[in-house]
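Progress report, Aim 2. The chain analyzed during this reporting quarter is listed below.
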Amino acid sequence: MSEYTPPFQITNEILSLVASISEKIGRISTVSNLESKPHLRRNNRIKSIHSSLKIEANSLSLGQVRDVINGKLVLGEQKEIQEVKNAYVAYEKMETIDPYSIKSLKELHGIMTKYVVEESGEFRKGEEGVFNGNECIFICPPARFIPRQMEDLFQWMKKAKKCVHPLIISSVFHYEFVFIHPFSDGNGRMARLWHTAILSQWKPIFEYIPIESQIEKFQDDYYDAIAKCHVQGESTIFIEFMLSQINKILDEIEGQMADGSEYMTEYLKRMLDVMEYDVPYTSSAIMELLGLKSKETFRKNYMNPALKHNLVKMTLPDKPNSKNQRYVKF
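Predicted structure tokens for the chain:
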């Protein structure tokens, strides 16, 4: 029996995107070190979890997801709260797993779906379809074929490591995994987590790049690319889509990493260190975190320079003196 090779083509667009992504990753790794930016790393991890769950209809907001992860009380459906807790543990284990191991895949699925899925950590036994509302848009392969299909896919990945770029391997895996639909639930979450895991083994910086948030922004296009691949019987369109989204999110990351070192004072460093990303603060709350009492000192040394250099933005930029004004680090 011949070895299985997932059907796809290497197009000029794919080659161009691989080159662009590689160049940007090189610049980000050289110019900035995420190890020195724990708030940025944590914020991007929370974004990844929120977006991946939101794609699967989890209704918790980004702030609620952050609160669950920080151990705060959140009012919401217990299942959705448990999904956040599970996803956080799963993402935290990413650097310790082998993304080319089916055993690791099942272990992570067991963590990702703990308490919320009956067949947690095991391939599905029943038949499944992918639905858009009440419309069935895709009938998944029969359950009896799953062990062989997954074995074939992982064997191909292990062999492809020697000659296929990880950016392409991860995208091919993502599509093939969604097509096989090996679990009764949690397939989308696992596909996106595993995509990141494969890339993280190539370049560890991918562990903190929220690819999932980019997919969420273009969710309809994401499903459309998958649907087109189902029709064509190959993953080329999906590879191009995913590489395009990764290329875009890296532009955002480069902007985040440009911390304005040429004008970064000790005052600004202190203020940015006490602020979480994407959390709206009142000026009084920031002053309290800094241990300041003088509003004039705060405005002169902290807030005004931060606003000037676009390190912090107002939630109500057209009403700078509003009592409802909040400030967000970005």
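The chain has a mean pLDDT of 90. The first strand starts at residue 129 and ends at 132. These observations will guide the mutagenesis work planned for the next reporting period.
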